[in-house]
Amino acid sequence: MTSLSLRSLTKRYDTATIVNAVSLDVEQGQLVSLLGPSGCGKTTILRMIAGLLEPTGGQILFGDEDVTALPANRRNVGLVFQSYALFPHMTVFENVAFGLRRQGLKGQELKTRVGEALEQVRLGALAERFPRQLSGGQQQRVALARSVAPRPAILLFDEPLSNLDAQLREEMQIEIKRLQSELKLTSLFVTHDQHEAMSLSDRICLMSGGNIQQFATPEEVYFSPANGFVSGFVGSPTKLTGVLRDDAVELAPGLVLHSSRAVPASGGRVRVTLRQEDLVLAPQGPGLPGTITMRIFEGASVQYIVTLDNGPEVMVRVPSRGAQADLAKGTAVAVSIPADRVFVSAEEGAA
Amino acid sequence: MTRSRSAGVGLIGPASVLILAGFLAPTVIMAMLSLRDYSGMHGIGTDWTLSNYIDVLGDWFYLEIILRTLALGLIVTLLCLVVGFPLALFILRVGSMMQTVAILLVTFPLLCNIVVRSFGWMVLLSPRGVINEALINAGLIAEPLALMYNLTGVIIGLVQIYLPFMVLLLVPALQNIPADVEAAALTLRSSRARVFFTITVPLASPGIITGSTLVFVLSISALVTPRMLGGPTYRVMATQIYDEFMTNLNWPSGAALAFVLTFIALALIWAANRVAAHLTRGISA
Questions:
Q1: For chain B, which residues score pLDDT lower than 50?
Q2: In which residue ranges of chain A is pLDDT below 50?
Q3: Do the Cβ atoms of A213 and A229 come closer than 8 Å?
Q4: C-alpha dihedral over B229, B231, B234, B240, to 10 degrees?
Q5: In terms of Cα–Cα distance, which of A304, A298, A254 is closest to A279?
Q6: How far is A104 from chain B (nearest CA, A)?
Q7: N or C terminus: which one in chain B shows less Cβ crowding within 10 Å?
Q8: Whose CA is closest to A153, among A77, A205, A217?
Q9: Residue B201: which of B285, B269, B280, B92 has the closest Cα?
């Protein structure tokens, strides 16, 4: 068990920079997510840490040890793949035993350790099966057992839940969280799914275009996005453009939003990001007047699309047991937005 | 008979007739021939006998030929595997442009007639051939090396001729191995060499077995190359069968030898399938 540090880690292919001088510290026993859209460099970072890709520059440290030049088989990492990557010609037992045998374990000790690892993912009964005889969720649990069995210094996850259906994904999230905190393994979790990152991580490293956009706790990322990219990525917000005048944004003639947050100094055209759950609907009263153009029932919540008078559409999400859950299409409403929930950023930075 | 069933018969009809007339009938005639008695005086007789098989399997002259043929097949197969495996890996891992070129180069010899290719090897390997002349002129050897009219020449010729089959069967087998699986083994503390032998080779075993079976069967039944590069006195089963028929005119003996060869090939294919089924019980459904 050890901490993980990246120092100006860089990966370039010809002229394309995939990872741009990324520095990051994962404290011992923490789970950090690398979150971002596809192509943001998160998987590349993971593979460089595992030793499967050679960095163009920078350093990778496990604790105080510089492992940048070490080959993959000498790094003591566990890696869980999106594709499970089990050895199809070996039984579940042999899959889990694979790394342990390399550590010189055999006989009863090997059996005990494999049994322990399989119990940790509650698959003890399936040791003699072949991977193809297992469901996707079971296969990924075998992969998890296989990577934690040799007690790696760092545990790496490469979108491990993307191939599972929604229900299984939540079960596995809990499984991973439980195992990781029980074993206190320093972990890096690559995902493009913000809910996964939010629910699993101690800290989230939000990436875009090979750069870190924000490295903070899930709460900080959600409540205090560092820039336009972060506010636009987290949640499924409405993105609008407007013209900045002092601390107010004019979305359309007569349609003005006040923000109590930091706004770009330059003024001019800006990007405004509004979270669906931050918007408050009322039948009338103060706020921006608008009309409901669509109602979508989602179970726990109801989503509305509201067309503001003389202005753009915004998305609003309210609890399905709340007072405003039954507004029909065509109803006139007033939309109010707390000034501290109006995220304003420079236009190009919000891309 | 329903409409679809008669349509089915119509579809397989021509192929069935071709197989019955062109393959099954001659095989039956040959099988009967191998059970006829034969004497140098009267030729093929009319009595039924097993003596042709007893002669072939009880005479060291024939047994030596059979064993030599099997050894030849084994050596050619192993050499094709050892040469072909790295080549298949290269084709798989190299860039797409080089890949096309490499596959073209591998398949190109297949477009050339076996007789022509064997002649080419004779030009290179014969005692006064290109290789020996070059080595003598360079002062590296005093006497020409015995590169043909022996096992060496036949092996060189057969490996070159059957290598494309091995490579073309290994490439898709290796292609089916997910890169992540090998990467997973690497992160589990295995050196590249260990990953190769514990992951890559076992997962490629369906291709290895198919390729090896094919090359082995083709090698033990090859006629032209052993005759041309082995010379008239170098006997393998195929050349001996040819001689029994064409030189000795002992058709029953030749037919018996041909059936022994066929049974060896069939037994081998059967055994290879059993081994493949065992090795790949985790891989395929």
A1: 285
A2: 349-351
A3: yes
A4: 100
A5: A304
A6: 11
A7: C
A8: A77
A9: B280
Confidence (pLDDT) at B172: 92
Q: Which tokens hold the place of A218?
A: 């899930």
Tell which residue, A275, A287, A288, has the closest CA to residue A317: A275
Q: Do A83 and B178 touch (CB under 8 A)?
A: yes
| Closest by Cα among B256, B125, B281 to B203 | B281
Give phi and psi for A285, each to the nearest 5: 115, -165
pLDDT for res A348:
60
pLDDT of residue A349: 45
ipTM, 2 dp:
0.84
Apex A142 CA angle, A137 and A147, nearest 5? 125
Tokens of residue B134, six digits: 């070059």
> What tokens were used for A125?
């009964």
Q: How far from A108 is each of A105, A115, A248, CA to CA, in Å? A: 9, 10, 71
Residue A301 CB-density burial (10 A; 0-12 exposed, 13-18 middle, 19+ buried): middle
pLDDT tens for each residue of B109-136:
888 888 898 888 899 998 888 998 899 9
Nearest residue on chain B to A92, judged by CA atoms? Answer: B282
Q: What is the pLDDT of residue A242?
A: 87
- Residue numbers in B near A75 (CB within 8 A): 187
Amino acid letter, residue B256: A
| Residue A173: closest CA among A136, A141, A217, A146 | A141
**Strand-pair category, A301-308 with A203-208:** unpaired
- Mutant choice from B189, B195, B196, B208 vs A, greatest count of A C-beta within 10 A: B189
With CB atoms and an 8 Å threshold, state whether A79 touches B184.
yes
Residues paired with residue A16 on neighbouring β-strands, in sequence order: A13
Q: Where are the beta strands (DSSP E) in chain B?
A: 36-39, 43-48
Which of A78, A79, A91 is CA-nearest to residue A133? A91
Q: Which helix (H) or strand (E) holds B258?
A: helix B251-279
Distance CA B231, CA B153 (A): 10
Residues 6+ away with beta carbon under 8 Å from A243? A249, A250, A268, A269, A270
Whether A10 and A17 have beta carbons less than 8 Å apart is answered as: yes
| Half-sphere exposure of residue B191: CA atoms within 13 angstroms, side-chain side | 2
Q: So what's the pLDDT on residue A144?
A: 93
Nearest to A121 by CA among A133, A105, A137: A137
Chain A environment of B184 (Cβ under 8 Å): 79, 81, 85-87, 143, 146
- Predicted confidence at residue B6, as pLDDT, reads 78
- Could you tell me the two tokens for A47? 């593979």
pLDDT digits (tens, 9 = 90+) for B43-85: 777 778 888 898 888 888 999 999 999 999 999 999 999 999 9
Q: What is the DSSP letter of B21?
A: I
Consecutive H or E run containing A295: strand A288-297
Question: Looking at residue B2, what is its pLDDT?
Answer: 63
Strand A255-258 relative to strand A288-297: parallel, antiparallel, unpaired?
unpaired
